[in-house]
Amino acid sequence: MVEEGLPDATKRRHGLDASGMDPESWDELMRNLEATIPVYDKVNSIVTLGQDKRWRKNVASFIESDMKVLEVGCGPGTFSENMQGVELTCLDPSEAMLEVARQRVGKARVERGEREAEFVQGVAEDLPLPDNTFDRVCCIFSFRDFHDKRKG
After folding, report:
1. What is the Cα–Cα distance from 42 to 95, expressed in whole angstroms?
2. 76-133 tens-digit pLDDT
3. 89 burial class (0-12, 13-18, 19+ CB within 10 angstroms)?
4. In which band, very low, low, confident or very high, does the pLDDT at 29 lie, cut at 50, 70 and 90?
5. Which residues contact 88 (CB under 8 A, 6 or more apart)?
6. Strand residues in 21-138 grouped as ranges (E)
7. Least confident piece of the model among 6-15, 43-52, 100-109, 113-122
8. How many whole angstroms separate alpha carbon 99 and alpha carbon 94?
9. Residue 120 and residue 137 in contact, taking contact as beta carbons nearer than 8 Å
10. What is the dihedral of CA 8, 12, 18, 20, to 10 degrees?
11. Under DSSP, is residue 126 helix (H, G, I), strand (E, B) or coil?
């Protein structure tokens, strides 16, 4: 279904429109995101004009102790490393991002004496997790990168 004013898939000039992202654009996006890993937090701070910390704090205010929490598109774990007193699952399509998150979030949780988080490779559009598992699902910056925003 083509929405008014948007090209159908055969007339796209790029992969970022309401009808989804083509595989080539998705692969390019993943490569670009993985290339930013060493400066990921700095880039987010710059592109949000420093608002990223405030946004994370706002989202965190909806999370209570002992909740089961899923962060969709966890990236390198910037948000998840500060999630305390919750059962945490981090989801990201990039194994490279998950590896950084494992180290970063894992270290923080060990230092606090908390249970290890679970790390799952996957996308929001096709969650590799059972339905009705989580009390809260967070998506800090990754919605912009969903392969198919409608399905996600």
Report:
1. 21
2. 999 999 999 999 999 999 999 999 999 999 999 999 999 999 999 988 888 889 999 9
3. buried
4. confident
5. 69, 71, 80, 105, 109, 117, 118
6. 68-72, 87-92, 118-121, 136-138
7. 6-15
8. 9
9. no
10. 100
11. helix
What is the pTM assigned to this prediction?
0.79
Which residue bears the tokens 């679970």?
A: 118
| Amino acid, single-letter form, for residue 73 | G
> Tokens representing 75?
């990236």
**Distances from the Cα of 54 to the Cα of 17, 21, 26, 42, 117, angstroms:** 28, 29, 29, 15, 24
Two structure tokens written together for 24: 């080539």
Q: How far apart are the first and last CA of the chain?
A: 17
